[in-house]
Amino acid sequence: MPTTEAEIRPARRLGSIIALACLALVLLGIAAMLVWPRAVQTAVSPVGGPFTLTTQAGEKLSDTDLRGKPFAIFFGFTRCPEVCPTTLWETTQALKSLGPDADKLRVLFVSVDPTRDTPEFMARYLQSFDSHITGLTGTEAEIAAIGKAYHVYYEKVPTGDGDYTMNHTALIFLMDANGQFAGTIAYEEAMDARLAKLRKLIAGKEAS
Ligand code: NI
């Protein structure tokens, strides 16, 4: 047992160092517990989820209305200069190639620019593409919710003249007849691969 001042001081110092180290470990542990499950959840939370949006015909469409038929869904906006018209055009070509099987699939184009993409505007825009493609729009909150469910990124980018454009995820998400995520089609993916994935989706097999 230390009894003198000289002996007690280093012992106390050692004690407080150990106490501080323990406290730091406990705090690290708490921080890890708070942050880690959220990180894991974000990484594994499934693509897709409930939504209710408005079609270009002005009708409500919910995820539950889609049960029983697989669907392909992608996000964009009608004023998109390149990615969206290209995706819509390639999807139109793919649907044409599917022939009668195209009826076994739904294709949804969700606007990430709902303020400008009214149902009327969507209807006019989609006349240039395959009639199987349903345009969906909604309130900012409704679009934010479905964007979050599909892990979609989109952002308003000012163009300097008081106008703006949108940056957005260019993937097509493939969802099975139960509304479960079944794969993706990348922007400008080869038509053969695109068709193979759509045929698999229609057949009820998992597309990768
Ligand atoms: Ni686009």
Average pLDDT works out at: 88
Distance between the termini: 69 Å
Major sheet size, sense and barrel closure: 7 strands, mixed
Ligands, deduplicated: nickel (II) ion
Description:
By secondary structure, the chain is an alpha+beta fold. The chain has two domains: 1-45; 52-203, Glutaredoxin. It has helices at residues 5-44, 83-98, 119-126, 140-149, 191-203, and strands at 52-55, 60-62, 71-76, 106-111, 133-137, 154-158, 164-168, 172-175, 181-185. The strands form two sheets. It has a seven-stranded mixed sheet with strand order 2-1-5-4-3-8-9. A two-stranded antiparallel sheet has the order 6-7. Helix 3 (119-126) links the parallel strand 4 and strand 5. The radius of gyration is 26 Å and the shape is elongated. The protein starts with a helix and ends in a 5-residue tail after the last helix. The site of nickel (II) ion has 6 residues, from helix 2.
Structural key phrases:
elongated; 9 strands; seven-stranded mixed beta sheet; Glutaredoxin; two-stranded antiparallel ribbon; binds nickel (II) ion; 208 residues; 42% helix; alpha+beta
Write the SSE topology:
Layout: H1 5-44, E1 52-55, E2 60-62, E3 71-76, H2 83-98, E4 106-111, H3 119-126, E5 133-137, H4 140-149, E6 154-158, E7 164-168, E8 172-175, E9 181-185, H5 191-203
Parallel strand pairs: 3-4, 4-5
Antiparallel strand pairs: 1-2, 1-5, 3-8, 6-7, 8-9
Helix pairs in contact: 2-5
